[in-house]
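@channel sequence for tomorrow's demo:
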Amino acid sequence: MLAALENGVQGGTWFSLIDKVYRIENLRSAFKKVKKNEGAGGVDQVTVKGFEINVERELARLSDELRTGTYQPQAARRAYVEKPGTKEKRPLGIPTVRDRICEGALRHVLEPIFEREFAENSHGFRPACSAKDALREVEHGLKAGKWYVVDADIKGYLDTPSHYTPSNEAVLKRGN
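structure tokens (generated this afternoon):
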């Protein structure tokens, strides 16, 4: 997969990646990461330990569902976690173990493709990047004489039905 990225794909276009996603080796690798992260069960109440009891059979079933297009993700279980330093709670969606495995398998395939395109100073939701890396980037820019820092944390923005209304554009332009 990575060699194909480096050397290029015949014709320069990827036509299908799903066959890379549903490979048992890829799903097994994704399960190992899910197991390492532990975490709670989703709406189906199946824990990582519960999934592991029949892991090879479950991975084969997941592979078959992905291959045949019959895979259906479950709803995420809603939980609320404390926000440090406040009395507020942050909503958290907890996917099922099966869905986390599928997400990991997709990440294994897609991340190397998109990672090549991101700017070096882009830090959000990327492997081996953190908020501290972003802060170091800001500090570096300030020392280099740059004046502007953009912080785009808009509370509840993704909870709104339409993200591109004129009123939202005005808020974004004002920097709120």
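heads up for whoever presents: Residues 129-176 form one domain.
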